[in-house]
Design goal:
By secondary structure, this protein is mostly beta strands. It has a single domain, classed as Sandwich (Immunoglobulin-like), CATH 2.60.40. The chain has strands at about 1-5, 10, 15-30, 30-40, 45-50, 65-70, 75, 85-95, 100-110. Strands 6-7-5-9 form a four-stranded antiparallel β-sheet, with no helix packed on it. A three-stranded antiparallel β-sheet has the order 3-4-8, with no helix packed on it. It has a two-stranded antiparallel ribbon with strand order 1-2. A hairpin with a 2-residue loop joins β1 and β2 (about 10).
Length: about 110
C-alpha cells in the first residue's frame, strides 16, 4: 500500500510489523515467562495479522482473543486492526522466546 506523508510517497507492507519480546522475570512450571509485543512501524492499519507459529508451545495459557493458533499460523488480536501507534501484547511461558514471523496481513492506508 502506498500513502503520502509530508509530500513523500511511502509504502506499508508486512515487513512493517515489528515483533519484540522480553522476559518478564516470572516463571510458570519452571519455564521463563515471555512478553511478546506486535506493533506496526508505519502509519497504515494492518488487519487479520497472521504469524508463523509452527511448533509454538507454552506452559501458560495465552488469551485466545490476543493469539489463536490454527495449524502452523496464529491469528493476532482476533483479526482486529492494528493501527500505526498500537501494539498487541501477550505473555507465554517456555524455555526460550519463540521466533514468531509475520506471514500475512491486510494493509489499509487512508
Amino acid at each position: 500500500m502506498l500513502f503520502m506523508h509530508a509530500g513523500t510517497l511511502q509504502s506499508c507492507e508486512l515487513k512493517d510489523l515489528v515483533i519484540t519480546q522480553k522476559a518478564t522475570g516470572k516463571t510458570v512450571e519452571n519455564k521463563a515467562e515471555w512478553e511478546a509485543s506486535v506493533s506496526v512501524d508505519c502509519p497504515c492499519t494492518q488487519a487479520n495479522v497472521k504469524l508463523f507459529c509452527k511448533g509454538f508451545q507454552t506452559a501458560e495459557a495465552v488469551d485466545s482473543s490476543l493469539l489463536s493458533k490454527s495449524g502452523d499460523e496464529c491469528l493476532l488480536n482476533n483479526g482486529q486492526p492494528l493501527y500505526g501507534s498500537d501494539a498487541v501484547s501477550f505473555v507465554y511461558a517456555w524455555d526460550a522466546p519463540f521466533d514468531f514471523k509475520p506471514v500475512y496481513s491486510e494493509v489499509a492506508c487512508s
